[in-house]
Amino acid sequence: MSMxxxxxxxxxxxxxxxxxxxxxxxxxxxxxxxxxxxxAVKDGKASAMLEGRKVSVLGPDLAARGIAEDKLASxxxxxxxxxxxxxxESNDKVQSWL
Amino acid sequence: xxxxxxxxxINRRAPYGTIYAWESLEVVLIGAAFEQDVSLAxxxxxxxxxxxxxxxxxxxxxxxxxxxSALGDxxxxxxxxxxxxxxxxxxxxxxxxxxxxxxxxxxxxxxDSIRLVSRAELGDVMAEQDVxxxx
Amino acid sequence: MxxxxxxxxxxxxxxxxxxxxxxxKAALEKGHEIFRIFFYHDGVNNGTRLTTPPQxxxxxVDRWTQLAQEHDIDMVVCVAAAQRRGIVDEGEAERxxxxxxxxxxxxxxxxxxxxxxGGIQSDRLVVFGD
Lengths: 98, 135, 130
What we know:
The complex is a heterotrimer.
Chain A: E1 3-7, H1 16-23, E2 29-32, E3 54-58, H2 59-64, E4 77-79, H3 81-90, E5 93-97
Parallel strand pairs in A: 1-2, 1-5, 2-3, 3-4
Chain B: E1 6-11, H1 20-31, E2 37-42, H2 66-69, E3 79-82, H3 83-88, E4 100-103, E5 109-112, E6 114-117, H4 119-127, E7 131-134
Parallel strand pairs in B: 1-2, 1-7, 2-3, 3-6
Antiparallel strand pairs in B: 4-5
Chain C: E1 2-7, H1 16-29, E2 33-39, H2 60-71, E3 75-78, H3 79-85, H4 90-96, E4 107-110, H5 113-121, E5 124-128
Parallel strand pairs in C: 1-2, 1-5, 2-3, 3-4
Helix pairs in contact in C: 1-2
């Protein structure tokens, strides 16, 4: 049993990335979309919150914001909307941290 | 009922500054008719929704806080309040409404609806649910 | 997988409506079923047919209409939220004494029970918002 944690706001705007990363457990996955993709930039303070967790990030949102994949923290998985759908399917439920 | 699912309504925003708190409560009230296994969670700024003594006359908005005390009548008996969120905000359970429900199996004895939980415990509660509502 | 999608924000103001749309499209392309798309809070504003976005920008409302018509998707705008924000169909106009309607094709106005039902009947509820 695992949960998909959907986060869409920048970690520098509010605490949602932090809250999600502190509550997620075991096999849970975090998916960063929209402005939350900034959390995955490796030299940013927020990327430390992602360590040790399964994190995916939406490629189209990265590209829109001019974030090249080589700027990302190493363990982050870049996916597309099809991958997003797969994550919803492979996890039991979705928690949207709005 | 084979269709019964565990529903958790998660409240993370303060009342009045935005409409999410009120419109989420509207979902809870309508949802009660569907007889699912319902719980509510209040965390982050959501804990402010339950504060006692709200007086909205000066801001011209409807004070909807009395609605929380009616939740027991809608058979909502599990209201999780996250400890860390209260502490961070300098609040205790005493600052919140005392929410109760009446147990018809125990001669209508009044019982507390609010369950104070840690973030980790709330995570466990979330993991047990079928459907998570966020607003 | 049977999905219910909830959209909490209006078009253009937030990216939620766009994210929800691309997610819905990808789900359909993978052969999943969308039980319902439910528009709540300012999300009801996705259902007005009166928008005129710039020519060189996406037309969010039309995009929803097309998606709904191509795939026969039930797109519901919450009645309480719609009344507050002025999204009106024929029935609402008559009931509430309004002199116009503005609901876009492919959308219907209905109660919060539709969202609850979506939660009950679907395998997954995915919420897009602020």
